[in-house]
Amino acid sequence: MAFHTIHTAPGLNERDRARAHRSGPWAVASVHAPAELLCRAGFVEVTATDETEEFRSAARAWIDQWDRHRAALVELHGSTDFETRQQERRVQLQAIDDGLLQRSLLLGQRPPD
After folding, report:
1. Alpha-carbon dihedral 5, 11, 17, 19, rounded to 10 degrees
2. For residue 100, which of 42, 43, 55, 37 has the smallest C-alpha distance?
3. Nearest-10 crossing angle of helices 79-97, 14-23
4. pLDDT at 86 over 80
5. Residue 102, domain CATH
């Protein structure tokens, strides 16, 4: 099994964890680390590679490109939807910059039968 996931940074206090949950996708609400969840599901040789810097770069580029193509995207999505999406992206980027959200590549193997 291999996948990327966005998750809360370890060791957050309750206030920062709540902010991370509000700032990230719904899966961020888990209180367990992604690697722990894979182990609980029976996977072995679980590894997690931090890819937060790539996440930050992609989030910033997404915002920049939407701003660059604002007119066409407003025409396509409408002004309200465009502004809502951009605000959500900015909130998420700020949470990444503040160390609340991370992105990891998770790898795990099913144990041999």
Report:
1. -90
2. 55
3. 140
4. yes
5. 3.40.50.150
As a whole number of angstroms, the distance between CA 68 and CA 30 comes to: 34
pLDDT tens, 24-46?
887 788 888 999 999 999 999 99
Q: Quote the number of domains for the chain.
A: 1
Please report which confidence band the pLDDT of residue 95 belongs to, taking 50, 70 and 90 as the band edges.
very high
Domain hosting 103: range is: 2-109
Contact 72, 80 (CB under 8 A): no
What percentage of the chain exceeds 90 in pLDDT?
88
26-31, long-range: CB < 8 A, 24+ apart:
28/101
Strand ranges, E, within 1-113: 2-8, 44-50, 101-109
Provide mean pLDDT across the span 43-71.
97
